[in-house]
Design goal:
Two copies of one chain form a homodimer.
Chain A lengths: L1 H28 L2 H10 L4 E2 H8 L3 H13 L3 E6 L2 E9 L1 H22 L3 H22 L2 E4 L5 H17 L23 E6 L5 E11 L2 E9 L8 H15 L4 E6 L4 H9 L3 E3 L10 E6 L1
Parallel strand pairs in A: 7-8
Antiparallel strand pairs in A: 1-3, 2-3, 4-5, 5-6, 6-7, 8-10, 9-10
Helix pairs in contact in A: 1-2, 1-5, 2-4
The structure holds a DNA duplex (30 and 30 nucleotides).
Amino acid sequence: MDAIAAIRSFNRFYAGRIGALEEHFLGQARPLGEARLLFEIGEAGASISELRARLALDSGYLSRLLRRLEEDGLVATEPDPNDGRRRFAVLTHRGVEEWDTLDRLSNHQIEAIVKPLGERRSAELADALSRAHHLVAAASITLEVVDAREPDAQAAMSAYFAELDTLFPTGFDPGDALTADVHAYDPPTGAFVVAYTNDRRAAGCGALLTMESSVGEIKRMWVAPEWRGVGLAGRILEDLESRSRSAGHSRTVLDTNAALHDAIAMYERAGYRPIERYNDNPYAQRWFEKRW
Amino acid sequence: MDAIAAIRSFNRFYAGRIGALEEHFLGQARPLGEARLLFEIGEAGASISELRARLALDSGYLSRLLRRLEEDGLVATEPDPNDGRRRFAVLTHRGVEEWDTLDRLSNHQIEAIVKPLGERRSAELADALSRAHHLVAAASITLEVVDAREPDAQAAMSAYFAELDTLFPTGFDPGDALTADVHAYDPPTGAFVVAYTNDRRAAGCGALLTMESSVGEIKRMWVAPEWRGVGLAGRILEDLESRSRSAGHSRTVLDTNAALHDAIAMYERAGYRPIERYNDNPYAQRWFEKRW
DNA sequence: ACAGATAGCTGACCCAGGTCAGCTATCGTG
DNA sequence: CACGATAGCTGACCTGGGTCAGCTATCTGT
């Protein structure tokens, strides 16, 4: 794979250049671990357990780091009023000062690297890195089966319906779709899949239900606008199809609105073929199936 | 700066995702330092001093790492036949095997990250990273004054002349340009500047000489094809101008061939204005000056 | 009210990574 | 041939990062 070689060469180069640089300068004022922790606490503060999760640190190790920052007068901890076991860490005035210093230094560091490029090329660099960032983030989206009544699932479906409402000439009325209908997506005969980003935000969803014993129906296929064009819909569809196969279906069907051109094109690319109307969905003008 | 924010956000994300990943997996078989060293020795082998320079390691530390790899039967060292003080490290058969394993693992690791993207998006990612790589590499090019008789300078000029030869309708005959003429570039009245990449390869050059006591002349402005379009010529020109100012000149002049459209455009952007012919260079059709 | 779970802390310990001074063998130069 | 410089090695030492077991205080569910 050429892509892999490119990524690896980038890694080696970039790690040595920028990564090490940042580490080195962060580590000169105080040990890296402490600096990172200081950064992570930030001006908003954070609960200890949150920090432990975000930095993936051992609880003992984190305790010690915190105590050192406390001794240096950069951080103060206070018990959580709602739960006496938990504690909350905030930056002191001096902590904020050091945070600012680190932040400023970090900016200068990057600026120094980028300065020779001039404004136009810097913008190009930023653009290339943003694209790479977005693509890697997209690649690390994972699909999980959740209960369709859960907040994440409900939010995803709501976003989907809101979008349909603006897209369809007649608008869209979800009716019971968020509540009564969702039992059809319960395993083992159905599934509601949410696509989660690295930071646990829903990037899309899709649902499967069993129409007849040998027929699965795909519904609620949706991808958040910021994650379109990275093949996520295809991944969700594939996931639902494999669940359909596991459920013993011999084919999946789906309906869609003529206004959803991209979706239709995607279904066709995925091997779906037009069939006759199989339901009385007032918003559907096209029906598809895929056999295996 | 928006660019800086983008780069920092990328750094944080990327370091946590790919960087840490690579480190972690490299470090599981054997300590990271050893793994890196193994990688760096490579199938071609390397001299100890080379390794020390490339990995920026303390000589004692490197010695110890090497000895551990030797004990594990992965590396063998042999004295340099030409210089009894120096030693050369090569991978043994088992060393090559482990190298291959690490290499393969590294590929799989990246492949796993990239796989969900599909081929087209992977290629896009690779493209974005290559562009970023190239831009950062361009930004870290440094300018150094060298003796024009040195190999690097000679090579850069030769490449320049070879290019002129293909570009000019009449071809180009350098005459004494590589030898007798270069004394004009000797400091303090002149300067020959070579642009070095991170890995000490010449990416371009430029020269300054003193025509009259108050007039500097810019010559031998050249940028290697792979480094064009990143503002390097502008940097070299600026550097030479500042040297000209320091030398007490009140203006710089230069000549160029009408075929070199990009160069002419660059000179104009940099503030150069057309003047009358000031020399009898048979290859020049345009003459410029810049005053300050 | 009590058992078990949870959050955070402490002590003990380990290892990789890194630095420094000093040693030996060899080389290049006058 | 003697001198200083250079390449590499060894010993001694330090620090940061990290793990593990066990402790205490608190919370939650029954």
